[in-house]
From TrEMBL:
<dbReference type="Pfam" id="PF00611">
    <property type="entry name" value="FCH"/>
</dbReference>
<keyword id="KW-0597">Phosphoprotein</keyword>
<dbReference type="InterPro" id="IPR051627">
    <property type="entry name" value="SLIT-ROBO_RhoGAP"/>
</dbReference>
<feature type="domain" description="F-BAR">
    <location>
        <begin position="22"/>
        <end position="325"/>
    </location>
</feature>
<dbReference type="InterPro" id="IPR027267">
    <property type="entry name" value="AH/BAR_dom_sf"/>
</dbReference>
<feature type="compositionally biased region" description="Basic and acidic residues">
    <location>
        <begin position="181"/>
        <end position="203"/>
    </location>
</feature>
<feature type="coiled-coil region">
    <location>
        <begin position="363"/>
        <end position="397"/>
    </location>
</feature>
<protein>
    <submittedName>
        <fullName>SLIT-ROBO Rho GTPase-activating protein 2 isoform X7</fullName>
    </submittedName>
</protein>
<dbReference type="InterPro" id="IPR031160">
    <property type="entry name" value="F_BAR_dom"/>
</dbReference>
<dbReference type="InterPro" id="IPR001060">
    <property type="entry name" value="FCH_dom"/>
</dbReference>
<keyword id="KW-0175">Coiled coil</keyword>
<feature type="region of interest" description="Disordered">
    <location>
        <begin position="181"/>
        <end position="212"/>
    </location>
</feature>
Length: 496
């Protein structure tokens, strides 16, 4: 004889589920830690850039002063009598002209390095300060969004646990009722067999009084059989009721299982990417691009001969790419961001029906539920699409704010015929206090509205994902059920 199949016990199934949920919870915690770490590294990077340019501004200013002292030292000599003689001549000697041009160039370089120091202190460093403030603020909001999504995901997992426990309970009741029904059937068979044997033994050979006793005994046996039949009918009804509850509970479990797997997949594949792309990195790369382009413009206009050395920096600025950074981050922490294994159906006590039951008496209920889901999905998709359009329009506004091309400082290096540098307009444009206050107020107000719509869109997409998974599974099951019914009908007609 073959040994009976070994089924997982309730405790084993729950333990496996708890282990899988704990692994996901640990991943979610590590994700937040990883993003926290990236934020700290970003803040440190921006602080290092500020310190670097502050020190470089001091060096440029010292260099400018030294150049000015150098030029003044030799220009003082040109004010002597001999120099005045040279100036009276109509044709200045070419070596003297070269010397004068060289000294004028030193003075020009002194002015240029003063301008460069001013750009570092009053333009580039404030930009990094602003990027740092924006990054911290946006990361805090992003963390709230991410935490909300993680809470929603854990809520879905808890709901799946509750539905699975309910399925276990009803399936256990169904198995118990089935066992009691079989026991009643055995008692009925035993009582009927006993009655038949007694009737066969008792032949009509005795007087009338003995016949009356036999009739009375026969009546008692029939009464006992009827009691057993009534008990069997009650147990049959109880089994039918519990079996229906078990089928419905299993259907709910399978639907919840499909919705949970869809939600987990969406979170790991779409939500994490969206949080990093559209929340954590919102404007960061573009703002850093602008700040470094300001530096490039200053350096390239200061000295074209340095162009070869600045190409590497320009190339790095050109390659500031949020998508590549995100991909690199997720590859570095692949074990944290990779989706977990899908939740599989865990059969309970030999219940191997891992598909939705679409036969009567639950078929009409499933059809009605599928129609209700379709109607609700249509409404939700329209509403969520409107929210998405508003969110995308707001995102475009934010991108327009952080991608404005205001990094060109070439005007700071334009010179008149008298070799005087054109007055820097840095303080009057980008870094003017009224302009900053207005831009930042508009930017933060737009950001607040964007994050509100972002949360609304993600929550709506979460709900649509769960409902769509349930609807698709119902639709697929009902379609297969209809095809099976049609085939059975054809077979019945052909046989007639």
């Amino acid at each position: 004889m073959t040994s009976p199949a070994k089924f997982k016990k309730d405790k084993e199934i729950i333990a496996e589920y708890d282990t899988q949920v704990k692994e996901i919870r640990a991943q979610l915690t590590e994700q937040m830690k990883c993003l926290d770490q990236q934020c700290e590294l970003r803040v440190q990077l921006l602080q290092d850039l500020q310190d670097f340019f502050r020190k470089k501004a001091e060096i440029e200013m010292d260099y400018s002063r030294n150049l000015e002292k150098l030029a003044e030292r030799f220009l003082a000599k040109t004010r002597s009598t001999k120099d005045q003689q040279f100036k009276k001549d109509q044709n200045v000697l070419s070596p003297v002209n070269c010397w004068n041009l060289l000294l004028n160039q030193v003075k020009r370089e002194s002015r240029d390095h003063t301008t460069l120091s001013d750009i570092y202190l009053n333009n580039i460093i404030p930009r990094f300060v602003q990027v740092s403030e924006d990054s911290g603020r946006l990361f805090k909001k992003s963390k709230e969004v991410g935490q909300q999504l993680q809470d929603d995901l854990m809520k879905v997992l808890n709901e799946l646990y509750s539905v699975m426990k309910t399925y276990h309970m009803y399936n256990a009741d169904s198995i118990s009722a089935q066992s009691k029904l079989k026991e009643a059937e055995k008692q009925e068979e035993k009582q009927i067999g006993k009655s038949v044997k007694q009737e066969d033994r008792q032949t009509p050979r005795s007087p009338d009084s003995t016949a009356n006793v036999r009739i009375e005994e026969k009546h008692v046996r029939r009464s006992s059989v009827k009691k057993i039949e009534k008990m069997k009918e009650k147990r049959q009804a109880k089994y039918t009721e519990n079996k229906l509850k078990a089928i419905k509970a299993r259907n709910e479990y399978l639907l919840a299982l499909e919705a949970t797997n869809a939600s987990v997949f969406k979170y790991y594949i779409h939500d994490l990417s969206d949080i990093i792309d559209q929340c954590c990195d919102l404007g960061y790369h573009a703002s850093l691009n602008r700040a470094l382009r300001t530096f490039l413009s200053a350096e390239l206009n200061l000295e074209q001969s340095k162009h070869e050395g600045l190409d590497a920096i320009e190339n790095a600025v050109e390659n500031l790419d949020a998508t590549s950074d995100k991909q690199r981050l997720m590859e570095m922490y692949n074990n944290v961001f990779c989706p977990p294994m899908k939740f599989e159906f865990q059969p309970h006590m030999g219940d191997m029906a891992s598909q939705l039951c679409a036969q009567q008496p639950v078929q009409s209920e499933l059809v009605q539920r599928c129609q209700q889901l379709q109607s609700r999905l249509s409404t939700l998709k329209i509403e969520n699409e409107e929210v998405k359009k508003t969110m995308e329009a707001t995102l475009q506004t934010i991108q327009d704010i952080v991608t404005v091309e205001d990094f060109d400082v070439s005007d700071c290096f334009q010179y008149s015929n008298s070799m005087e540098s054109v007055k820097s307009t840095v303080s009057e444009t980008f870094m003017s206090k009224p302009s900053i206050a207005k831009r930042r107020a508009n930017q933060q107000e737009t950001e607040q509205f964007y994050f509100t719509k972002m949360k609304e869109y993600l929550e709506g997409r979460n709900l649509i994902t769960k409902l769509q998974a349930k609807h698709d599974l119902l639709q697929k099951t009902l379609g297969e059920s209809q095809r099976t019914d049609c085939n059975l009908a054809r077979i019945s007609v052909s046989s007639c």
